[in-house]
Automatic annotation (TrEMBL):
This is Sodium-coupled monocarboxylate transporter 2. InterPro entries: Na/Glc_symporter_sf (IPR038377), Na/solute_symporter (IPR001734), Sodium:Solute_Symporter_SSF (IPR051163). It comes from the Eukaryota. The keyword Transport applies.
Amino acid sequence: MCAVLLGPVLALNAVTNFSMEMAIIAFGAVCTIYCVMGGLKAVLWTDAFQAVLMLTFILVVYVVGISEVGSVTEIIRRASEGKRLNFFDFRLDFETRYTFWNCFFRGVGFGLGFWVAVNLKCKGHSV
């Protein structure tokens, strides 16, 4: 909740003379009242609407990007020229950007970091 409140509070503080403390209290109160008045149903509908918007605009970005480049085969050709399709390179060279093992260890590291952070948060431990 703190990170969610920080963005609007900083924006409000930048354009008005509100103190940080008052802005935090005001935005916290607005969020609390919104949840209490609308209940969980309103929050769920808002989350569903945001999910639909995000997926829609991800598709729009993909379609516009592909149309600007020309075709998917052109994207693959450019990625191949930039040596970004060397996924099945099994060398243990950590100075090379894209190899199988670099992607594997990066994925495991991000996955474990996310899993640990979410579990600590859910269990109430401070990170």
